[in-house]
Design a protein that fits this description.
The protein is of the alpha/beta class. The chain has 6 helices and 11 strands. The strands form 3 sheets. It has a 7-stranded mixed sheet with strand order 5-4-1-6-8-7-9, sandwiched between helices. Strands 2-3 form a two-stranded antiparallel sheet. A two-stranded antiparallel ribbon has the order 10-11. It starts with a strand and ends with a helix.
Amino acid sequence: MTGQIAGLILAGGLSRRMGGTDKALLPLHGQPLIGRVLDRLRPQATPIAINTNGDPAPFQPFGVDIIADTLAGYQGPLAGILAGFEWATVKPKITHLLSVAGDTPFFPPDLAARLATAGDPARIRVAASAGRLHPTFALWPVQLRDKLAAFLESGDIRRVITFLEQTGMDAVDFPNEQLGRATVDPFFNINTPEDLAQAERLLSGA
């Protein structure tokens, strides 16, 4: 694939199962959760932006661009992708946007490389594991900006998978990974305090 890949961390949700706390900033093994996500993403994409709809100030020390949804009303991950498209398309040479979730600290270190070399570069490449798609982990051609904007304006269907199916996608399967003594789905995400505790145990080797 030719062209440059920009990175987008989706951290614009409401974190209801964390009591409304901005979970991306919660500590995980001595580091903010989003700091671990950034460490995974930085070798894979440049530049990088964080999509958040809260106070941007706590994210500024991470040294990347901070962008909010351009649509009102917390319309979900696709609104974050659209904001990412609008951020990326004004930068030269960027042809694709690599999206990752801000609550998933173990995603593959070769995510970008494997998605970039799979399928048709004009289609969306989406990560999968254990028979499940992970639509927030995808490589998006930035030329889809106008199509996504029209989709979001067309009605009340906001599901990521609906847009993927209508637009065309290729799924790329990723195996479980070894983390210490444990075998982990690399797309294990942190939604609840129990998930955060489990991730802490994994990183501690428990």
